[in-house]
Amino acid sequence: MANISCSSITKAYGTHTVIEGLDLSIPDHEFVVFLGPSGCGKSTMLRMIAGLEEVTSGNVVIDGTDVTHLAPGARGVAMVFQSYALYPHMTVAENITFGVRRQGVPKPEIARRLKDVAQLLGLEPFLERRPKNLSGGQQQRVAMARAMIKTPKVFLFDEPLSNLDAKLREKLRTEIRKMHLALKTTTIFVTHDQLEAMTIADRIVLMRAGQIEQQGTPDEIFDRPATRFVADFIGSPTMNFLPASIERMGEALTAAAGPIHISLPPERFSGLKTGQQVELGLRPARMDLAPEGSANLLEGRVVLIENMGSEGQVIADVHGTEMSFVTKDFRSVRPGDRVRFAIRPEHVHVFDRASGRSLLNDGL
Ligand SMILES: Nc1ncnc2c1ncn2[C@@H]1O[C@H](COP(=O)(O)OP(=O)(O)O)[C@@H](O)[C@H]1O
Ligand SMILES: [Mg+2]
Fold first, then answer.
1. Is the CB of 18 under 6 A from ligand 1?
2. Percent of the chain as helix, strand, coil, to the nearest 5
3. Residue nearest to atom 7 of ligand 1 (CA)
4. Which fold has domain 4-233?
5. Is residue 191 within 6 Å of ligand 1 at its C-beta?
6. CB of 38 shorter than 6 A to ligand 1
7. What is the pTM of this model?
8. What is the pLDDT of residues 201-256, one digit of tens each?
9. Nearest atom (ligand 1) to Cα of 190
10. Spatial separation of the C-alpha atoms in residues 93 and 282, rounded to whole Å
């Protein structure tokens, strides 16, 4: 059990700074996901917490101890990588227990822990097999068991599921989450996959170019993105963006994008001024097919429909801009049809066009 605190972490390779003054605090038991595009510094951060990479400056504190200059083995962390790197000549049981045997943990204790982790990960039938006789998912479970048997204070996962096919990835994701419910070990999980992050995280730390762009629960990140970058990164299909100009008439607040006029709830955007250049953000899943005459409509012609089973993505040409909508009623429309979508004012995002920052009132 441990909380983790990183303060003013900087990492530079020569003159190239890849992490810049990063502060982060993770409470005991939390399951945190580092999310961000490839190259933003997720692995580097994780490796500095693990002790596999030196910090250029700053401090890492785990469970009250400054571990910044401690060797990986002295930090009480265990890491699981994308490549499992199991020893081919050893059995599953030997692979799992290799680390703890080297640490000199007494044999009966090793046997007891092996039994527990094998049961938790469903590896009991495979303990005497060699890795080459296991599937990819089973091999990744062995790699996880090898980390768990060390009973670390902190689990670190670096894209552990990226090599697996979609079905297996989903299954192991659920298992990792269940494992966390059972053990409650503080966990950092790195991924570039926003859906994986949304489904597995207590809290998402969204990184961009070596800095934290936003952190929050999956709901906060999805419904209250602090920047256009976050809004664009999270959600599939991607959020629709529309350049617009603000018009304020007395109490009424409107965003105008050519012929499209969308009224905005003034209490949510009290800082907006007439003439302000913004970008509207509309989530495809937060709009509904609407009957004629409804307020706040987007009207367009259907270009394409993507069937996703229980719902469908309708891509429509709205006054020259292609926009996506997700609806359960997608089977009622065809390419070429005119469609109307109602916008729920509480789900309209407004970003400053220059800075990309959300213009939603603080606290909403
Ligand atoms: N050993 C290294 N030498 C120089 N640059 C590196 C080294 N390791 C990583 N980088 C750079 O640091 C940045 C962050 O990399 P990384 O942490 O692996 O990103 P991510 O895991 O988010 O994809 C990248 O620009 C990468 O090229
Ligand atoms: Mg990485």
1. yes
2. 30, 35, 35
3. 13
4. Rossmann fold (3.40.50)
5. no
6. yes
7. 0.93
8. 999 999 999 999 999 999 999 999 999 999 999 999 999 999 999 999 888 999 99
9. 21
10. 51
